Amino acid sequence: MPDDHVFNVLFLCMANSARSLMAESILNRLGHGHFKAYSAGIAPSGAVHPETTKLLAGLNYDVSGLRSKSWTEFTGPDAPHFDFVFTVCDDAAEETCPVLPGEPWRRMSAHWGIPDPKLANGTATELSFAFADAYRLLHRRIAIFVALPLRSLDRLALQEHLKEIGQTTVAAQAQTLAG
């Protein structure tokens, strides 16, 4: 693969109103010039969750182009070819993760389950914390992904790395950051 190849990445979840949009924003910032991120949902809500917008805008992300969209936008002949597809649904909450049709052997994929912050109960502060927690977990996983030597890993090693990133927990991330 040429050094100037930009990898297309799709983040999928259910509603495309929080987690996948956060991931799209994070990767477009951290991987600028090397990655182009997109996001979609299997049952899009049709709106970006206000807490997602508040969080990302507060972290100086451009939120003007964020919108909730269906995965079907990425199935047509003019859709980008995806090098990577990550699901961010919370299988621990028995949330159904979408499967992108097409040619799965042409792309790498992994499940990076993130609890849905929209389901947090409690005060406005607790809701904000749930969104911030989802953001931190996504940011850490994406930072690890961006740091991978993609061009020098064989397909099997890369797939294993992607799987390991998805198993990274908040506690493991804190331990990694501490030392």
Number of strands: 4
Shape: globular
* Main sheet: strand order: 2-1-3-4
Q: How do the helices and strands follow one another from N- to C-terminus?
A: EHEHEEHHH
Strand-residue fraction?
5-15%
Mean pLDDT: 86
- Pairing-aware structural class of the strands and helices? alpha/beta
Oligomer class: single chain
Approximately how much helix is present in the residues?
A: 25-40%
Point out poorly predicted stretches: 171-179
Q: What characterizes the major β-sheet?
A: 4 strands, parallel
What's the gyration radius in Å?
A: 16 Å
**Span between N and C termini?**
34 Å
Count up the helices.
5
Model description:
The protein has a 4-stranded parallel sheet. The chain is globular and about 50 Å long. It has helices at residues 19-30, 50-58, 124-147, 155-166, 170-178; strands spanning 7-13, 35-41, 84-87, 108-111. α1 links the parallel β1 and β2. It has 179 residues and is an alpha/beta fold. The protein has 5 helices and 4 strands.
List keywords for this structure.
single chain; 179 residues; alpha/beta; 4-stranded parallel beta sheet; globular; disordered C terminus
